[in-house]
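Q: For a teaching session next week I want to show students how multiple molecules come together into a single three-dimensional assembly. I've collected the sequence lines for a complex. Could you give me the predicted structure tokens for the whole thing so I can convert them for display?
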Amino acid sequence: MPNEKVRCHPTVILEKSLKAFSSAVMFLILLFVAIDSSAIVTVLALFLVALLLFNYRQWKRTTIQFNERDVVVERDTLFKMKKTLPYSKIASVNVNRDISNRLFGTSKLLININSGSSATVPEAVLTFKQDIADEIRSGMSRRLYDHTISPEEDETIESVASFSPMDVVIHGLFSVSTYQTILGSAFLAYSLFELYVSTVAGFQVGGKALVPLLMFVAVQIAPSVSLIFRYYNYKVYRRGDTIYLQHGLVRTYKTSFNVSRINAVRVKSTLAARLLHRSCIEAEVVGLVSEGGGSSRPVLCLLKDDATQQKILRELVPEFVYERNPNRQPEGAKSVLLIRAAIASLVVAAVMFYPSVYVYREAAALIGVVGVLGVALQYVLPLVTALAILAIIYAAYVSYRVAEFGTGEDLFTFVNGAVDRETVVMNYDKVQMVRIEKGPIARIFNVARGSVYMLSSTGSASISSGYFPENRLAAVGEIVMERIASGEYDYRENSI
Amino acid sequence: MVDKGAPVHEADEGGVGYRRLNRKCMLSMYIGYAISYTILLGVCFLLRSYSQGFLGPYYDFVQYACLAVLAIALVYMVAAPPVYYARYRYQITEDKVDVRYGILVIRHILVPIERVHQVEVTRGPIDNMLGLGDVTITTAGGDATINYLEIEEAEKVADRLNNLIGRMLQDRKSPAPTSLPGPAND
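A: Of course. Below is the structure for the complete assembly, covering every listed component.
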């Protein structure tokens, strides 16, 4: 349908109305309860009708035109809008299907442009019948990537590696950051403690146990379940210079992007994942945001054993593989990290002093808790504080041992993370800005930290190094400048 | 006669071509800090006047903490501007913007001109009063600011950056000269 003006599928009227209605209904009910109105049902019905009429008008007056060079989305309502998206600026065209799409047999076509300012919202979300959406995506892929993947091929093509449902569950459970897991566990422990205390003391189990339990679910369980739903049926493959991703249980995602759009590649492993000898790969790409929220950073490999992860890295993004010759942090860095750890330990001890005394007194006053358990309850916070201080000092030592910095011809690498480890491989040509910082302690030991700024999935991001000599870190900026001056940097390949 | 307020060329710390700020930057910082300190004093006064019932036995502790914060802030606000002025260096060459600054933490920022997307000159009310302005250089990955420039200097810096970017884009538009086939002496 080149140059022909089309509209979205009419089900968007119902979909948008219901979405707006559900987000406003609670507020309206609370408002009417407060003013004690009996006309609540009538007002809600009128509100829904008004929403339907509004969205009908929006739908009727919004047209989309797929031209030879661009896509034009035009809305002729009170607030007029004409959005022209040239194919040359489009970063990705992806297809998402949520529950309402499945019910109505439609798909959402998400068009993203390569922009930092709109990195967290798709530039256009267009709903069409599923087969039409697939056809449009296929046609646009041909324009964007010089080749096409038919919907049938999409289903049958082999993934670079197989990801079983167990891999997805492991990814969901163990790719959540360790700090988040510790926080969730602390909520769970507190909830159990409150439950135990109220049982022993014979009080009713009230909100004191329920609130931390809900927090545990929100911090720990919900993100894991969401990841499992998101990455179910995970498939990744590469055709030419384009990487394709498919996954999703309830909402399905079909994502593709050109490899030249990747600004950095991260190999990540949480503490739990490292114990299982697994790691995952993420790419920093702009213009892959989807409507469903969550991270817009594409995952190129779920938590897999290290050998498979390396194989996938080489097959999917060989552009980000090089012979690394990393530098470890100098001796001065150890002193800086230890002094910082000592200061952090002092702060923790000072902050925990009063709560420790409070819990000691409260536990001592509890009737019915005696013996070893009674003593353990009294000393639980001092013990936790001592463990936290030990953990801080150990983390400083591990951080010294782990942090690396390596420079290659086209790529350079930062390795960081005492608990959750991350190896970030970056291309000099994607670096936007370099910043080197020397704090008062670091100055004494002649070390500095570097931050590299680049366009990321969330707009812009900085990636920081460990402590290294300033001139060593300054080499990144110097190489970036040299590549621009010598013409090695090709702006056509790296244009934003 | 040498104008002590004018920016001067520097030949130390990183080589020739680094420039320093105008001394008026210290005055601007002192005025800004004085406003912040007044707000902080107001908060402490409100705490002292109205929080006794709410804080109960911790009232004295909070009062001492407020005094400590006020004393530390005062020392910092008095000492910071001269240190900031003494350390601030910036350099704009054909291919990069280089800024070195910091009070406790010393920062060195390098922005290749090739990556600059936008240049903006901004003036707050205090800077406006003192004839100063900031130049914010935006890239796709973040932005860097050259603070407290005299407004003429800020405009000059922005013009220079815009010219450099314009020239770079012009160079890209014009095709590279190619030699036409034909006799060598044509």
